[in-house]
Amino acid sequence: MVDQAQDTRVTTADPVRDQRRFPPKGAPLIHGINRGGLWTLYIKEVRRFLKVQTQTIWAPAVTTLLFLVIFTVALGRQGRMVLGVPFASFIAPGLIAMGMMQNAFANSSFSLLVGKIQGTIIDYLMPPLSEGELMTGIVAAATTRAIAVGLAVAVAIGLWPGVDLGVAHAWAIIWFGLMGAIMLSLLGLLTSLWAEKFDHAAAVTNFVVAPLSLLSGTFYTLHNLSPAFQMVSLANPFFYVISGFRYGFLGSSDIGDGHAAVWWAAGGLGLFNLALGFATYWLLRRGWKLKS
After folding, report:
1. From CA 279, how far away is CA 147, in angstroms rounded?
2. Residues 6 or more apart from 195 whose CB is under 8 A from it?
3. Distances (CA, A) of 253 to 85, 125, 147, 173
4. pLDDT digits (tens, 9 = 90+) for 68-87
């Protein structure tokens, strides 16, 4: 019986055939993009925020609508006009973009952080996903949440009397909306890499994201500020997202004179996101605060 088993093993063993069937040890089995793994990660992240959609999608819509109600009642009385439109129509696009950016940050800043705190970060590091695929899946899911929140906010604001959300330049709505969502998704991913507890992520939210959002020109025009504060606003990337997104609805903005300034802002945001994405990818590739 032993001789027969040995004979069978010898006659069926074919090193050349096995080399064709199985790659050498350490050689990658997946070449190119791991589409299945990337899609699985994306669906996992999307399902995570959809399970609590009352908190992640509809609650931001209600909060943003309250902003509109408060500022319209406080500042929009007596037919106040800004950029040639009623005050409510002026702040509505900015509120939509602000809600999209804040929720994109909230989604991506939670992904890796909760894994580090709960000790399940291995679930992100062990699957056969490259650093670029891991970053793409998390950012894409956060952008999806931002789009969902933007649509919910737009519907809620559209029901408010006196708000006109007519589309003047569809490309600007799409481009600046996506650029703002991607920018905050990358910033949130960087935060989840750096943070070691929820207090760290909350500090970035309270002392970086919230101030930049409120000082982005959502509730005022740049021309109402002093020259010093105008320079501060021009250095704020959130300002270009808000103003460019507003340009898509109203056909006018306070970025600069003419439509060329909006195009320059669109290109600048694209380059800024490329630089931010490269920095995030580099830190992920190094395993900064992820791998011991």
Report:
1. 24
2. 109, 113, 116, 201, 204
3. 12, 44, 22, 13
4. 888 887 765 666 788 888 88
